[in-house]
Structures are given as structure tokens and as C-alpha cells.
Amino acid sequence: MKPLSDEDSRILLHRRIFQSEDKCPEDLQVVSRDILKKCGGVPLAIITIASLLASNQRVKQKYEWMHLHNSIGRGVTQGDIVKDMNMILSLSYYDLPSHLKPCLLYLSIFPEDFEIKRDWLIWRWLAEGFIQCDKEETRLFEIGERYFNELMNRSLIQPAKINDEGTVVTWRIHDVVLDLICSLSSAENFIFILNNAECHAPNLQRKFRRLSLHNIKAKVQNHQFDSTSLSKVRTFAVFSPVACDWLPSLSSFHFLRVLDLGNCGSHESSSGLNLKYVRNLIHLRYLGLKGADVHELPVDISKLQLLQILDIQGTRINELPASIVQLRNLICLSVDSGLRLPKGMGNLMSLEVLERVGLSSSSHIVEELRHLTEVMTLSINCDNMDEDLIDILIKSLHGTPSFSFRRYADFQSGSIQGRFLTSPAWP
């Protein structure tokens, strides 16, 4: 990309900091020009610097501008733009408050050019223990939303899709930013990325805290994992249609908190995903199976008493085991509308998100909704339902004035989707 002119660079910086190109105070004019010289007309460098100079909705003092100018060093030059950019971006990382640093490093778990749903990133942060409650009455997810917005305001992540309410639905990360995060993450042994280039014996015998598989080709799937290297892994994620037979046995993991096997089993040589040992992962908080070739969950899934997030969209599972109603810490459940829910779902008193429930296959959920007092996000499919049951559902949802929908889909489309402003007080 051609570098910006001096004038365009100035306009970009000042608009990001002062919301206007003409409102830069006189005492900051000179240092502003000096900083821009070191940005070399590179938009990402300018945006990054702007985020540092106006973090937390406060424009920093002149001495802070001077300090930043001196910290940049030679700035971006034509000699090694990538290296110079990394140096500038690293300032953004070290400027982060301590609670945001692991949240940013965690983004290295995703492949390049990957579009990620905001909510599912926040659920991952929560399962990892990155989100700490600051007030007893504040939901962890809401704190996670603040974390996400802080990173976005610092231009470290970019919105990809935004809904009609102005809320970010999906996001991306700039390749240069991702490269830096991956470098920092690797240096701290925070996440190990296994891809075609890394898929050889010495790396497979390393000990990891978090392991992510990217774009593994069939020709390298004859390598085997050393079970001892996986014993202390906290996160295992797969972003590649690998054969399930090649994946390490779940019995190798002793302290797993996050397991994401989305799309596993789509490989042509796969025999399907075996979840036999998942019941032994007693530390598991997050189980992501979206799009995986899996037919059923273990009947004794209730052993996963710490499980908080379960995503089984796009699987071949058509019925949840009865014991799932014993998962008292479950806060997010995402299913397919044709899946049958067991009776007793009202026992899931911690549930905050219930997505894609089909009333035609689980009509009893209408009566049980009144017990789910913590639910904030609800998505229900009403296709082929009798009008009486839909009327009961509407009365249940609108029976009290204590909540309202932020978003409400047309009933003619066959679904209800909404997010409550406050916890519902079911009649």
C-alpha cells in the first residue's frame, strides 16, 4: 500500500484523537508532526499511535506525547517496515492494563484471516478465567464485553460485521497485529500453534499450556502426539478438517479447560469423533463441537460439573442426554432447532444464553422457561407450531414489565430472537 501523504497522515491522526482534523492544541502541534514522521505514512502505525495517545477516552498530556515519541525510536523506515511496525505495535501491548494482556495474546489461537464471532471469543475468555468480576452483581459476560471494546478502541481488533443496533457481531485482526501477538505468545509459551511447518517430532514432544491446530494437511497426519506433552494442556483447539483418528486421545489431557473440536471429522478419512473420554475432563469449562462429525454426547456428561459453555450447532446430535440438566454451572447452551431437549431444563438455573431451541421438538421448554431466571439471550424456532403454544410462549415472555427485547424477530419468519435488558421475572 502506498504511504499516506503528510497531510492525510495528520488528518487521520487528529481525527482519531480529537474527532476533528482542526482541534489539535497548539502545544501539541510540533510533537504531533514529529510522531507522524516516525509513522512513515503507514495507516496502521498512525492508528496504533492514536490509540495510545487517547486511551481510556482521555487525551494524554504533552510530556506523555514526548515520551511516546522517544519510545518509538527510528520509527517506520523503508528499510524494514515490518520490524519497525512490530516495534510500534509492541508499545500498544505493553501499554495494556494487566487484565487485557492475556485476552490479547489469546487471539493468536485463531488462524490468519479468520472471522470470529465476538460473543464466542468472550465465552472463551470466560472459560479460560481471564475475566474477573469487579462487582458481585455484574455478569462476567458483560465485563468481557468491556474488555472487547477496550481492545477495539485501541485498534488492536477490527469489527467485521455490525448489526442494526451498532453491536459488533464478528471481528478480524490485522495480519501485522496477529504476527506480533503470535510472536509474543510463543515467547511466553502462552499458545503453541501447530501447522504444516511445525508438524514434526521435536515440536510434538514439547509441553504446552494451549495448543491450536491450523491447516494440517493429510500428508503430515501420520505424526503422533506424545501424551506427556499434553498432560498439562489447558486449551486444545482445532481449526483444520483433520481426520479424527489422528487427534490425540482425550485421555491424554488432565487439566483441560477449553476443548474446541469444531469441524473435526469432515476429513475424508475420518471415522467420526469419539467423545468417550470427555466425561473424564473434570476441569472442562468450554466444549465447542460446532460442525463436528459427532452423533451423541456421553450419557454421563453430568460429570462435567464445571462446564459453562456448550456449543453443538451443526453436529449430528439429535438429542441431549437426560443428565445434562444436572450441569448447574452451565451458562451458555447453543443447539440446533431439531434437537430434542430433555425435561428438567428448568434446573439449569445459571443459564444466561439459550440459542436455537426448536419448539416443535421440545415444546415442554415453554413451561420451563419461567425457571430460567438468569436467561438474557434467547433464540427460539417456532416453525410448524400450533398457535396455542405460541400464544403461551408470548404471554410468558411478555408477562411482566421487568424486561424488554433489544431485538425481536418477526413471528412470520418462524423464530424469536431477543436479548433482555434485565433478567426476566417469569410469571
CATH class of the domain at 342-427: Alpha Beta
Helix vs. strand class: alpha/beta
* Helix share, percent: 25-40%
State Rg.
Answer: 24 Å
Distance between the termini: 59 Å
CATH topology of the domain at 342-427: Translation Initiation Factor IF3
Strand composition percent: 5-15%
Specify the biggest β-sheet: 10 strands, mixed
According to DSSP, the number of beta strands is 13
- Poorly predicted tracts of residues: 399-414
Report the CATH architecture of the domain at 342-427. Answer: 2-Layer Sandwich
| Count of runs of 4 or more consecutive helical residues | 13
Report the average pLDDT across residues: 81
Q: How would you spell out the order of helices and strands?
A: HHHHHHEHHEEHEHEHEEEEEEHEHE
Word description of this protein:
- By secondary structure, the chain is of the alpha/beta class.
- Among the domains are: 6-87, Helicase, Ruva Protein, domain 3 (Orthogonal Bundle), CATH 1.10.8; 101-172, no CATH class; 342-427, Translation Initiation Factor IF3, CATH 3.30.110.
- Helices cover 29% and strands 12% of the residues.
- The protein contains 13 helices and 13 strands.
- The strands form 2 sheets. The protein has a 10-stranded mixed sheet, with helices on one face. It has a 3-stranded antiparallel sheet with strand order 1-3-2.
- Helix 1 (6-18) crosses helix 2.
- The longest helix is centred in the N-terminal third of the chain and has 14 residues, at 81-94.
- The chain is globular and about 70 Å long.
- It holds the Pfam family LRR_14.
- InterPro entries: Apaf_helical, Disease_R_plants, LRR_dom_sf, LRR_R13L4/SHOC2-like, P-loop_NTPase, WH-like_DNA-bd_sf, WHD_DRP.
- GO terms for molecular function: ADP binding.
- Keywords: Plant defense, Repeat.
